[in-house]
UniProtKB/TrEMBL annotation:
This is SET domain-containing protein. GO terms for biological process: methylation. One of its GO terms (molecular function) is methyltransferase activity. Keywords: Chromosome, Methyltransferase, S-adenosyl-L-methionine, Transferase. It comes from the Bacteria. InterPro entries: Post-SET_dom (IPR003616), SET2_Histone-Lys_MeTrsfase (IPR050777), SET_dom (IPR001214), SET_dom_sf (IPR046341). Its main location: cytoplasm. Residues 140-156 form the Post-SET domain. One of its GO terms (cellular component) is chromosome. Pfam families: SET (PF00856). The keyword Mitochondrion does not apply. Residues 16-133 form the SET domain.
Length: 180
C-alpha cells in the first residue's frame, strides 16, 4: 500500500471526498480526504458562463498579464459550441486541482456541467490531479511541476506528447549543432 506524506491540516474541507491544502506541485491543491473509488464523481467545476467572444477577450488579457508579471492562471473551460465556463471564482474549489502527466482523475462534460471523475482508486492524502489538455502551441509557457515518472516537462495533453517529444528532440539537436 502506498503511503502519502502527512501534510498539515486541511485549509478547507471541500466535500466528503476532498480538502484543500498546500501542494508540492503548485500553490494550493485538492487532496483526497478518504478513499475515492474508480469512477466516482468527485467535484463539479463551476463558474461564470461566458460566450466565446468574452472567453477569447479574457484569455488575451491573461496572456498580456503573464507577459508583464510572469504568471497568470487560466480557469476557462470549453463548455460547448457557444459558451465557455470561467472558473476563476472563489466558490470554485475545483479550480485548485493541479495538472499531472499521470492524472488520477479526468474532467468530463455531462450536459454542459463539468465533473471530475476518478480514473482509478485515489487514497486518502493523495493529491487529486487531471490532465489540463493544453495545446502544444505555447508549451514553453506552461512548464509542468508534477514530478511524476512520466512527466514530459510541460503541461501538454497526452495526445500531443509524441509531437512534443519530436519538437524537443529537434530543439536540442539544433542547440547541439550550434555549439559544435
Amino acid at each position: 500500500m502506498v503511503k502519502f506524506p502527512k501534510l498539515p491540516s486541511p485549509v478547507k474541507q471541500v466535500n466528503p471526498f476532498c480538502e484543500i491544502r498546500r501542494s508540492p506541485i503548485h500553490g494550493m491543491g485538492v487532496f483526497a480526504s478518504r478513499t475515492i473509488r474508480k469512477g466516482t464523481r468527485i467535484i463539479e467545476y463551476v463558474g461564470e458562463l461566458i460566450d466565446k467572444e468574452e472567453s477569447n477577450r479574457r484569455g488575451l488579457d491573461l496572456f498580456e498579464e503573464s507577459k508583464k508579471t510572469g504568471g497568470a492562471s487560466v480557469y476557462i473551460f470549453d463548455l460547448n459550441e457557444t459558451h465557455d465556463l470561467d472558473g476563476n471564482k472563489s466558490y470554485n474549489d475545483a479550480r485548485l486541482i493541479n495538472h499531472s502527466c499521470e492524472p488520477n482523475a479526468e474532467m468530463v462534460n455531462e450536459d454542459d456541467q463539468l465533473w471530475l471523475f476518478a480514473l482509478r482508486e485515489i487514497l486518502p492524502g493523495e493529491e487529486i490531479t487531471f490532465d489540463y489538455g493544453y495545446d502544444i502551441e505555447h508549451f514553453l509557457d506552461h512548464p509542468c511541476r508534477c514530478g511524476t515518472d512520466e512527466c514530459v516537462g510541460f503541461i501538454v495533453s497526452r495526445e500531443q506528447w509524441p509531437k512534443l517529444k519530436r519538437t524537443l528532440r529537434k530543439r536540442s539537436g539544433k542547440k547541439s549543432t550550434k555549439t559544435a
